[in-house]
Amino acid sequence: MKAVILVGGQGTRLRPLTLGTPKPMVPLANRPFVSYVLERLRNHGIGEVVFSMGYLPDGIKAFFGDGEDFGLKVTYVTEDRPLGTAGAVKNVEEYVRDGDFLVLNGDILTDLDLGGLIAFHHEKQATGTIALTPVEDPTAYGLVRTSESGEVLGFLEKPSWDQIDTNLINAGTYILKSEVFDMIPAGVEYSFERGVFPRIVGKGLCGYRSDSYWMDIGTPEKYLQAHYDILEKNVETNISECLDQDFVCLQGQVHLETGAKLVPPVIIGEGCTIKAGARVGRMAVVGPGCTIAADSVVEESVLQKGCTLEENVVVRRSIVAKGAHVGAGTIVSGGAIIGEDAEVGEDNILTNHIRIYPGTVVRGGSIKF
Ligand code: GTP
């Protein structure tokens, strides 16, 4: 079976991390996010993948090439303009038309049993099978009602509590028969959720319920949570092996000065320097080539590659994007995001979900909230 991975979106909710980097290439535990999707496909015996791209496609192509290093054959198709989920799949029809095929949103971290999904789809002889995942707050989502045996009965868009009789949502992974292509108009924006699926309710559309780990990394909060879940091994990824028993993963040579502390769970990228008195963890991922100066603290946070924290910096529940520089005594907390290559001077307080855009220079002591 072949798979189409949708990676054309602009990732607006994850800005400023997605201004210079497309969401699939945003690092998750120091690897492009979409490489976890490829790993899962390969582990389930999928041999061919088509990337359906739009926004910032070049970095994706450059990284994955022909796919050989990842054990897959990879093809790339770039849209001139956003075509929506179904329009994007229609656009790659020639590559996958020869049989049933998988479609995956490129921004979901999951250990969904693809083998189980495929077997269910075949057993039901379904026209389409949607993977379903339960959520805690069903009012925020489009819900999917199914019969006991798995036929989809209907969709319920952002319902009120009194309408709710299911907590299952579309998990962004489908298997479709090629006849579905005949329902999608070519060259226009079209959606599976609003266009295709409602038309095949009662005509072979099934739902496969899974209680596997599932997280859409589309917001900064969920991006952080996905890191915490990898660190705690709540989701099965190949980082779990490196974390081993002690939950400390050094991804290469790291220079830890005497008196520097790592508090598990923690992942440190290759070539980092952590100076005396600095404390990294618990729940921290530090990208390759970062420098964390004396007495700084990083916890429940992500530093992407090549960041520098001067002395006495605190980074807590926040994200520092690649190449950013944070001056001495600055506090970065409460869901703050420091964009790529930003220069933050000393003694600032950046908190309350503040987003510093890439390349911005923040003078010393100028922000205190
Ligand atoms: P937001 O702007 O933050 O909503 O993110 P997004 O642009 O990624 O949109 P969303 O999270 O709804 O998209 C789900 C998945 O579909 C992501 O993997 C997107 O890359 C992908 N996607 C969304 N729209 C398109 C599209 O028009 N074309 C293609 N090829 N992929 C798309």
Tell me about this structure.
- The chain has 369 residues and is of the alpha/beta class.
- The strands form seven sheets. The protein has a seven-stranded mixed beta sheet with strand order 5-4-1-6-11-8-12, with helices on both faces.
- A hairpin with a 5-residue loop joins strand 9 and strand 10.
- Helix 3 packs across helix 6.
- The protein binds guanosine-5'-triphosphate.
- Guanosine-5'-triphosphate binds next to strand 1 and helix 3.
Mean pLDDT: 94
Mind describing the biggest β-sheet?
A: 7 strands, mixed
What Rg, in angstroms, do the CA atoms define?
A: 22 Å
Secondary structure tally: strands: 33
| Beta-strand fraction estimate | 25-35%
- CATH class of the largest domain, anyone? Alpha Beta
Describe the strand arrangement of the main beta sheet, using strand numbers: 5-4-1-6-11-8-12
Q: Helical content, roughly?
A: 10-25%
Q: What is the tally of helical segments?
A: 8
CATH superfamily of the largest domain: Spore Coat Polysaccharide Biosynthesis Protein SpsA, Chain A
Bound molecules: guanosine-5'-triphosphate
The CA-CA distance between the termini, in Å, is 52 Å
Name the structural class: alpha/beta
Number of domains: 2
